[in-house]
Design a protein that fits this description.
By secondary structure, this protein is mostly beta strands. It has a 17-stranded mixed sheet that branches. InterPro entries: FecR (IPR006860).
Amino acid sequence: MVLRAAIITLLSLFWALPVFAGPAASVVFFSGQPVVLAENGVSRQLLRGADVLAGETIETRDGRVQLRFRDGASMSLQPGTTFRVDRFRYTAGDKAVAEDGVLMTLVKGGLRTVTGWLGKRDRKQYQLGTTVATIGIRGTEYSAELDGAGLVVRTYVGIVEVCSKVGCVDVPGGKEVWVRSLDEAPRLRENDGKGADAIQAVPDVPLKLEAGEQVRPPAGMAGEAPPLPAGRHGKF
């Protein structure tokens, strides 16, 4: 009960903060016909070099998208992914200051990212939320995949912290964690290669168009983006 009360308190603090609607990232590359949804629900076609603002949602649909964030982070989104930038603030050119931070949500699908300045010195500045757990970092490279079976997070470099309502687990390089639901503890396990196909489905950074990759008609995306759950992070 104490943990859940703390989570509710952190959520109220998060959403009491103003939305900084400036550019959070720019589109480096895309394939297929992905779209961006503004906070008011209006959609627009994704364009190379275009800005993605705090509060906007990307639906990759049939394609792939690579983003470059203002703090230097790179992120590749795989087909069938819905990803939202909830909050973003970065004021310095070569380091993050105390007031900076980023909150993001992986609604569904998969991503792979190399983090930038945010979270490098203070991991409370960085959080990626899903419906079953939140992810915090200590300057790292990791992937995350969310589907009906839960969330799988694989760490390649550095350490990732994954938190559900039940508890938190540190995931060092070469290992992965599975979280089935928000009310279950994350389960740490060795990355023995069983998830190799899923890892390859999320392209390395920088992402490049594969030879012979075809553009298909966009597939529909159903459902609304869920609220961002909180772990034991939450300074920003």
